[in-house]
Every structure is written in C-alpha cells, then in structure tokens.
C-alpha cells in the first residue's frame, strides 16, 4: 500500500497528532508558541499551537484547553501515549514566542511571548522531555512545518527566508 | 453581564453604529489629508473564533500591514487598521509621490514608515475620538505600532487580552476606500475589538443594557 503524505494543519489553540510520512504545520506564530513532541522510533509526532502560558490564570471555565501551555501539553502527551509512543524516547522542538510590537515589551506581564516559551520549557523539563532545538523570540511571525520522517522543523518568516532546525 | 451568545439585534445595531461613526470621522480625516473623496462601507459585525478571524483576513499566512493600538480607559479594547501591502504602496505613492516604493521595504524606508504610521495614527485617533464623544466613555489610545508580517502573528498578539477570557472576538469591521481612482485605490479596514467586559460599558453608556 502506498501512503500519500499529507500536511496536517494545526490551527490556533489547536493540536494534532500524526505519523510519518505526514507532516505537521501551523501558520503565523507570533507571540504564540508551536511545540512539537516526537517519537523517532515510532515515527509519531504531535504539534500544539499554544496561545497562553497558564490555564489557572483564566477567568472563565468554558475555555478551550488546547489554548494554554499546561493543559495543551497534558492533552498532547496523553494522545501520543495512546498512539503507542514510548514515554522515554520523546523529544521536543519549538518555535515562536516573538514580540510583534516593540512598545508592549516594557511591561513584563505583557511579554506574553517570553512567558509562553518559559512555560513550555518548564513543563517539558517536568516530563523529562529534552528540547533538541528551538527558534524563539525576536519580532517576526513564523510558519512552521515538522517532517516526522527526518525530525526536522522548517521555519519560514516573511523577511528572513527559511531556516531548518 | 451581556455574553456574546446573548447579544440581541439591538446590540448588534449599536455596534454597527459605533463602526459607522468612528469610520465616518476617519474617512473625513483621510479625505482632508489626501484631498480626495473617500467612500466607506456599511460596518459589519462578526462574531468569530480565532481561526475564523484568520480566514476572514485571508488566512493566517497572509501578509498584512497593520497599525495596532490598545484602547485604555473605561472600555478597553484593541484596534487594528489593516492594509494589504499593495494598498500600502498606493498610499505611500499618494502621500510621498514615490512610485517605486514597495511595502516589503517599509521597515527600512524611514520616511514611508513614518508616513504610514502617521496616517494610522490620525485615522485611528479620529475613529476613537468620535466613538468617545458618542458614548461619553473615556478612551485613551496607546501609541500606535506599525508592523508588516503574517496576519495571525500580528492579530493574535493584539488579542491576548481577549483570549484570556474568551475563545471568540466580536469584530466591528468598516472599510474606507479612496473613491476616485479605482486603479490605485487605498482600501483600509478598521477592526475594533472591545475586550469582553467593555460591551456592558458601551451598552450601558448608550442606555440599552438589559437588566
């Protein structure tokens, strides 16, 4: 049987899990962070497009759990486990967490990009998942695509071309 | 507390009127600046989730030129003035007489950058002052920031405050258009996105808050 590779698109505050030869893609990361957790043995990966660092800071209950770093990572890891991923061979790559508007960066509470990146780092550390590569910060929007076959993350920006990590 | 799913036709009509008044004032300002007739569309109100908002502007990857500002005061919110790169080109051409300008170079082109910023500044300022007068609500804009990048990257950072409370945004969209010259027209969208708690203030100020 021939499997045609398809690009699995991850929306904002969304997450998807798939296997090679498919790729995972999310577009227009600004202060949001795109996290990929992958298992090279099983050629399995999941990507989350995270908007906010902490679900506990939310004022309402009806929110989408995939929006926050903490809850999205729980859902992602649970899903990967269900698909047969080995907990001990999981690795991560991430991109995003930019500041699109310079004037906002004066107030630390408003540096949402940094806070998203920090939150993802500490959650991954808690689960003992190593971050193999990252492209975070700056003031550019990013579109990312993860190739599960090669474990490479392609990052596109408007002015600086394509970078592969 | 009026929730998004409880908005009545009257509420929506009021939000449209707000878009009308704000953009009308901004169109007058632009008309004075360019010495031209400026048309505007009837405002549309959209209640969208974040992914729908990206589709509304042409997809998350679409490159847009945006003047962004936060509204502070009694009814906080976010405002964007959005142009496509082509529209930015014709705006710069009309302002500076520079025919070879390309929006891609805007960040390096100091004069064009400050001209477009200033237009955004004037237009959003006239939009907000009309709104503030109409509602008697005190609204202070932050210094506007001009950015050209992917739509999702820009718009989502402006929606951080809204996203902490809601998965939907109410967007009041009005388009102004240079009505004389269809070949080099300048079309700009005003997106006004009040924070969730601000709707009550706006409705109360206009005397339509259902008890």
TrEMBL record, chain A:
Its EC number is 3.5.1.44. It is an enzyme of class 3 (hydrolase). It comes from the Bacteria. The keyword Hydrolase applies. Keywords: Chemotaxis, Hydrolase. It catalyses: L-glutaminyl-[protein] + H2O = L-glutamyl-[protein] + NH4(+). HAMAP family: CheD. Probably deamidates glutamine residues to glutamate on methyl-accepting chemotaxis receptors (MCPs), playing an important role in chemotaxis. Belongs to the CheD family. This is Probable chemoreceptor glutamine deamidase CheD. It comes from Gracilibacillus xinjiangensis. The lineage of its organism: Bacteria, Bacillati, Bacillota, Bacilli, Bacillales.
Automatic annotation (TrEMBL), chain B:
Residues 11-47, 114-147 form the CheC-like protein domain. SUPFAM superfamilies: CheC-like (SSF103039). Keywords: Chemotaxis, Hydrolase. Coiled coil: none annotated. CDD domains: CheC_ClassI (cd17909). PANTHER family: PROTEIN PHOSPHATASE CHEZ. This is Chemotaxis protein CheC. It comes from Gracilibacillus xinjiangensis.
């Amino acid at each position: 049987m021939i499997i045609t590779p398809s690009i699995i698109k991850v929306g904002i505050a969304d997450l998807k899990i798939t296997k090679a030869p498919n790729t995972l893609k999310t577009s227009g990361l600004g202060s949001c962070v795109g996290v990929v957790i992958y298992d090279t043995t099983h050629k399995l990966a999941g990507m989350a497009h995270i908007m906010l660092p902490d679900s506990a800071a939310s004022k309402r209950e009806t929110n989408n759990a995939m929006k926050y770093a903490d809850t999205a990572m729980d859902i992602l890891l649970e899903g990967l486990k269900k698909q047969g991923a080995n907990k001990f061979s999981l690795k991560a790559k991430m991109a995003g967490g930019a500041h699109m508007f310079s004037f906002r960066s004066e107030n630390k509470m408003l540096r949402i990009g940094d806070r998203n990146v920090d939150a993802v780092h500490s959650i991954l550390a808690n689960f003992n998942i190593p971050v193999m590569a990252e492209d975070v910060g700056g003031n550019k929007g990013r579109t990312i695509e993860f190739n599960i076959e090669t474990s490479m993350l392609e990052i596109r920006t408007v002015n600086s071309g394509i970078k592969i990590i | 507390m009026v929730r998004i799913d409880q908005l009545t036709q009257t509420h929506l009509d009021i939000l449209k009127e707000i878009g009308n008044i704000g953009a009308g004032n901004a169109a007058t300002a632009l008309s004075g600046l360019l010495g031209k007739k400026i048309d505007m569309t009837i405002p549309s109100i959209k209640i969208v989730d974040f992914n729908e908002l990206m589709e509304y502007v042409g997809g998350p990857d679409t490159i847009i030129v945006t003047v962004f500002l936060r509204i502070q005061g009694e009814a906080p919110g976010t405002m964007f003035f959005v142009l496509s790169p082509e529209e930015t080109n014709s705006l710069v051409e009309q302002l500076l007489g520079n025919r070879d300008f390309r929006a891609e170079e805007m960040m390096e082109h100091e004069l064009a950058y400050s001209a477009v910023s200033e237009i955004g500044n004037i237009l959003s300022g006239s939009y907000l002052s009309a709104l503030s007068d109409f509602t008697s609500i005190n609204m202070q804009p932050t210094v506007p920031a001009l950015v050209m990048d992917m739509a999702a990257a820009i718009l989502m950072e402006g929606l951080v405050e809204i996203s902490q409370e809601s998965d939907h945004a109410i967007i009041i969209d009005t388009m102004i258009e240079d009505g004389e010259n269809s070949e080099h027209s300048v079309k700009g969208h005003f997106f006004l996105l009040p924070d969730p708690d601000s709707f009550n203030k706006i409705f109360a100020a206009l005397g339509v808050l259902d008890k």
